[in-house]
Fold these 2 entries.
Entry 1:
Amino acid sequence: MIKIADLHRSFGGQTVLRGVSLSVADKELIAIIGESGGGKSVLLRHLIGLLKPDRGTVQVEGEDITTLTGRKLDRIREKFGVVFQGGALFDSFTVYDNIAFPLKEKTKLPKQEIHERVEEALEDVGLKGMESKYPAEISGGMKKRVALARALITEPKIVLFDEPTTGLDPIMLHAIHKLITDTHRKYGFTGVMISHDIPEIFHVADRIAFLYRGVIELVGTPREIRTSSDPVVRQFIRGSLRGPIEIV
Amino acid sequence: MIEKFLRATGSWAISILRRMGHMFLFLLRSIYYIFVPPFKFRLLLREIRFIGTKSMTVILLMGSFTGMVLALQIFYTLRKVGSEAMLGPAVAISLIRELGPVLSALTITGRAGSALAAEIGIMRISEQIDALTAMALSPIRYLIVPKMVAAVIVFPLLAAIYDVIGIFGGYFVGVKLLGLSAGTYFSQMKHFIVMEDITIGMYKALTFGVLVLWICCYKGFYTGYGAEGVSKATTEAVVMSSVLILVSDYVLGAFFI
Ligand SMILES: Nc1ncnc2c1ncn2[C@@H]1O[C@H](COP(=O)(O)OP(=O)(O)OP(=O)(O)O)[C@@H](O)[C@H]1O
Ligand SMILES: [Mg+2]
């Protein structure tokens, strides 16, 4: 479904990605873990053509999107739903209008049906009664959930999540993970999810990829990751201060 | 030594040219989306309200005082040559050809242009523009085009209001305070003002509208990161717009009309 090959990207003098290769199978939910500032968000932005690589390719359903522009790229983008790290909610719109926006703009659904779907989505993310609030008036965790609802409302084939659960309380974290897995089971999207939630993410993702120093250090099932003998991986999932990863 | 100097000048010139090209492409893209449906009328109305309706108070205030000051100054000059009767036309022509379009454009830049640049800049740094792009929706169509079209409608209208209110401000000073007869003030105006004065004023207002929105939208759209980036973009947008209003006013006046 998505095939990243030898992706390189640097900003000015700083090299962020130095040869990332990763394949995501159809309907798979893969999680990317890695250091803060390690380039996870940068990698995700390449998957939808918001950034162009210095070298390497990103294939979505067999088409290399790094060379596409304009309408052709838009056709690919229409398959995606994206949850941005900061939510990226439109701050001049209410919660309701934010969630309804993709349906209003991208589909020809009648108003009544849009309304029903938005109400349902609001209920799913536990935000009923918040319809008329503006993004500035809700908490960080609520923003995350609105962003999630907005990304899933069009039932996209591929969903990119950039830390959808960071900053949520433990109960809400599990609720959102459950929502993601339920939706995944129901619509069967292909998902790429960046997460810092170790160990919870092990119960959600089909596979885990560990991004370290600009390459995928290891990719495997949660079980393989947990039992890995790679010292870097071991240190990272345990969060210990001592080990090969240096803290600056 | 000379080589070094030439190289520095050259790379400076190239970077200026490249930036100008980038700005020009931005304008062309915006113009393209003006004519390609779907059109976003609701967003257009919102922008007209923001750029136009909400600028009314300050335009009325500025316009009336401009007219009053103008009448005061011109009256003393005219009295020296004994032709106070010309006060009406002098005030009206200055306003209609020059001051109305220029000062209203500067006022809107200060009130709305800076806000627009900041709004777009914040949308950029909070990834809202990326979110639109990721939904395969053109940010130019949703953010820039409604503002540009609104400016084309609003700038001439506000300039016209500025003119009218300024003329009445002049009337107040000239007739009520300085004792000119009301009939003279208006009838002389009718004699001396021709349609061309008005069209020139309107062309200017139109040009300023496109120019200001182009600069402010561009600066916001390609803002730097963080609060600092946005504040820098806003400042640059206002300074550059104000300078270009005056420069283009001269260029238009001297070479085209
Ligand atoms: N547009 C940009 N211009 C310059 N540098 C950038 C840009 N975007 C990202 N970077 C740099 O790339 C690096 C990786 O950033 P990225 O946002 O991908 O980290 P991350 O892995 O998502 O971290 P976190 O878990 O904290 O979100 C950072 O050092 C950042 O400074
Ligand atoms: Mg990130």
Entry 2:
Amino acid sequence: MSWVGQSVPRFEDGRLMSGQGQYIADLAPVPGIRQAAILRSPYAHARISGIDMSQALALPGVFGIVTGADLSTILAPFPVGVPIPMKYFPLAIDRVRYVGEPVAVIVAESRYLAEDAADLIRVNYQPLPVAMDVEASVQGGSTWIHDDVADNLANHRTFRYGDPEEALKSSDLIVEERFFYPRNTGIPIETYGVIAHYDQSLGDYTVWANFHGPFTLHSVMAHALKVTTQKLRIKTPTDIGGSFGVKSAVYPYMVLMAATSRLLGIPVKWVEDRLEHMKASSSASSRISYLTAGFSSDGRLRALKLRQYDDVGAYIRAPEPATLYRVHGNLTGAYDVANVSLENFAVLTNRVPTGLVRGYGGPQLYFPLERMMDIAARKLGLDPADIRRKNLIRPDQFPYRTASGGLYDSGNYQQVLETALNEAKYEQFRSQAAGGKGPMRYGIGMAAVVEPSGSNMGYVTVAYTPEERARQLPKSGAVSAATVAVDALGGITVQIDSAPEGQGHETVVRQIVADVLTVPPETIRVIAEMDTATTAWTISSGSYSSRFAAAGASAVHTAAVQVRDKLLALAANHLHTDVKTLRFEQGRVFHGDEASSWTVKRLAGLTHWHPAGLPTGTTPGVYETSYFSLPNMEPPTATDLVNSSATYGFLVDVAKVAVNVETGEIEILDYVTVHDAGNLLNPLLADGQIQGGLAFGIGSALYETLHYDEDGQLLTGSLMDYLVPTVSEMPHSLTIRHHHTPAPGVPLGAKGLGEGNVMSAGAAIANAVSDALGTEVLALPLSLRAVSDITGKGGGQR
Amino acid sequence: MKPVPFDYVLPETLDELLEVLALGNNAKILAGGQSLVPMLNMRLARPDMLISLRRIPGLEGIEDEGQSLRVGAMVVQERFRRAVSGREGFDALSVGMEHIGHPQTRSTGTVAGSIAHADPSSELPLLLQVYRGSATIMGPSGLRNVEARDLFLFPYTTLIEPQEVVVSTSWPKPLRGTGSAFMEISRRRGDFALVAVACQIRINGERCLEDGVLGAAGVAGTPISVELPSHFKGQTLSEDVAQYWIQSLDPLLDPPNDLEASSGLRRHLVHQLGYQTVVEAERRAGGNKR
Amino acid sequence: MIRYGKDQRVAVTLTINGRPYRRWVEPRMLLSDFIRDEVGLTGTHVGCEHGVCGACTVLIDGEPARSCLRLAVDVEPQNVTTIEGLAKEPGYERVRRAFSQNHALQCGFCTAGIVASVWSRLENYEGLQVDWDELLSGHLCRCTGYVGIQNAIRDLQGEEREQ
Ligand SMILES: Cc1cc2nc3c(=O)[nH]c(=O)nc-3n(C[C@H](O)[C@H](O)[C@H](O)COP(=O)(O)OP(=O)(O)OC[C@H]3O[C@@H](n4cnc5c(N)ncnc54)[C@H](O)[C@@H]3O)c2cc1C
Ligand code: FES
Ligand code: FES
């Protein structure tokens, strides 16, 4: 029996269920740590003309205060992913640009005291006009947030594939709409946390944080700290309390605390509170999409034109503007269409900077795209299922090259769609549920989503023009590293580079290694903490872009195979036989059907206890590291083609909703989601990812928004106002089904699947609500207020 | 998110409590803390002194006084909810209290604290009005009883003076033949109401209306309520009667306009929920009769 | 009448998991910080400090309550139980098993609070109707979509019925 593919309960659960998890806030890795609090801007845009700290510094128990002036003496601005003259520091220097921007760091004996001191600091602000509207900015109508960034435009690129103009001209139906996807965020229940220690004698930084990569940001941090990379050692705790991408943006705070530790000469710890997190951590980019699509009268999609405006907040922070490019290769979703034009704007506003949030770039794309299919279906008198059937990429087209350069590795989209429709009893619902009862209206909607996983590090450079790229060194690849070691008495330890935050990597790693070395999973120890000084890692290490199933698991697998091969070669030497005739079974070497006396333990022992007896060419010890590189990860071409992800899964969701037209309440009666993520390493954990992703998607569809007023004040800045769904907001029934089309370039055939439902749910639910109400939903979330604006109840917009 | 420093006082008698309250130095009473402590943690409340009610004897009781239930200031919401659930005429109260936060906050938050806090979207201030209850308040000049309909002035503001404390609330038991109902729309389960409506109705053997109160929360600076118009007494509940009664709330409406619901939508929701609530209360009254 | 000054550290003795802990703290110290930072029981987590997320939920005299919304000094003389205490209870193993087998936790940050709430109803509620979804609505879990948690509860109830 193989462990991979089984629903193995997690090894992590034991410690987490008994209160023995080790999260960043629980740690005190060096003695003498002091507590930090951050004074933050109450204004969205203002000049700082003075800071009076005298009272705060006089408070007993306060060790020191760091301001932008101090910081600028030792820091360089963060490098950014676009060529614009903008300086981004982790602390405001002379101007604040969003509510919550750090202005000073106070270090004291306790967090209570640090906050008391923060209260005593007097900052002189001269408020400036704010820029909140991306379209107004691009049209030249806003104040400039950075003096040298004209019209707040951080990135502007156009792309053209095929002949979209001609295809539109010859189309029978043109769909033209403006869509809005709101700012929302991940809300991990654990907030950010950083501990920083500066060794004054050597000039070395050690920073502990609940950071999970991408570790490209390690070099960004080292650059800001003006040190060579070995001088910045980053460690992650055993447990991270969720992230959903958001904790990648703890990195400015890692630099801030590192610099504070250096300036004050003491180790400092900062645990973000929830209000800080809401205001000033990170956010998904909102997007305005102008979509134009051409269809033939029989429902074939001929051309797609998109103009996208992303609000990236007050500073464009690496890896942004990647929200615009993460899905560049799968811009056309599940549909076979060759004529595409795209215009991207990344625009600065006086809001918190954006960054990774589960689904990254996906919901912003699929909400308009999948709504478009339903709008076209309605206009053409087609069923939404039929219009998709007509346009889905066919099984015989794989591997399929998309218009924008994506290489869809495998799939059977029709099969997934039909399973979803069957499970949802789609036809039955369609034939019965005309209209509704009393105030209730019933509707059904679907979304078909190609789910990318394993990002190509090169896609980020699509933000540059081909000419600009040609002047840089090429960037590409999706690599993960893992080490499998066997000690002198056969103990197996695996070290991984994914810095997980709840996905269960420790368990899956055990399954993989147990299969290769044929030992029980519980005999393997997995170290998932990252330490950039001792772990094997690369710039693409970390947990993001659903990369573990494809990249991380492959690195573990190949490292384990290296160990196995080394041990088998040793056994072959001792048994005087060809290694090809040997295999491991139950931790023992078998020669044909015959068990030998050689075990993993004994073979590994030889390499430790008796290196003199090893055959020539065999090194002592068993410590195998694999750097695994996913295939087909080229840099973007001169014509802006890029395969932005290593593998592409597929899913179809079908949602049934009941809308109360009097109250605006929406109930999700039934939800079906069918995935094809290739081989599943652990179905129990895979379903957990889907359930969690769906909850997220439902939140974004119905509840969640970081809403700012026109002065740039955040109106949903606590968990009382930012509405994270509870169990009572989940669908009444949820059905999950899987198909398994293996990923051809991945040893275990697995694709990622944790983000798909974030990309699909908003679209599926909006399609269902549009169906129920007989209108077209063009914006999320569908609050009571939004629904009443559609139904006109209570006077609509008033 | 840590509170500012404050003195902490733990009086052991009501007299001691009044004594410290009389000092008048920016003090706050601490009951369950489910509203106050979040504000302390956010430093929106910055008292110099917190006075805990925890040690004062006699504030923990739910007493049946025959005509009414007297609920001591430190009785937590969950305990009161369990005490009234299933009791004739108290449907609206027990259902309404299920809407207050969560079991984990109701285990700690007090009935009197919710009344004193006077959040305009809160369930208990509305319910106290609809049950024609009152708060018993103790101050430097002794005890006084304030009817719920007089108690609430503005959002988070009541007739309770800074030197005073609510020692109990009184919940008249509905007479035989009374039915009550409570309905609420909130964004998530356990959230404060966008709109809540409560109603109690008493009918006679012929199912004719004898008495009633209808009220709403979330639609003005305080809970609002209206009595059954006297000219409907003796009539059966028709759709016209119900609608007329509900519309008699209109002059009191002053609904907020926010991200989740416009003023217009809240007005509309009061009418929607109002009708269902009145019908349900009357139905229960009929059921209770039999 | 006890009166503590704001600049004073006062001796607070709390019984946590059956053991008394005496610490000198400011009157303003939150129970959650007392448990974590003073006593070192870090299994109780803090996610919002305004009562919404539920991560800090502990049992106070057997009832689930937010430890971020209580002042440590104001908790005396009630009994506090945290996940570390529950984990030592004889009946806890089946909760651990039900949660693990149903994948009711991912990052585990919300788990201590949820387990406290669930335990309160498993232990003292024989015969009483429990609205499990209502109980769970007092907790935010961002990882699981709640499905695994609901399934774990269903298993635990099934076991109770069989007993
Ligand atoms: C997550 C969450 C959700 C919630 N949801 C709801 C909800 O849906 N509906 C709702 O109504 N409430 C809700 N609440 C608030 C909760 O009901 C509180 O319990 C209640 O508002 C206050 O009661 P308390 O005992 O906690 O009072 P405290 O917080 O201790 O005090 C509140 C205020 O009242 C004063 N006060 C308290 N007791 C007295 C007294 N006896 N005499 C004079 N003044 C006094 C205090 O000085 C303070 O100003 C929620 C709270 C949380 C944390
Ligand atoms: S930390 Fe106490 S409820 Fe969130
Ligand atoms: S398991 Fe991560 S928040 Fe619940």
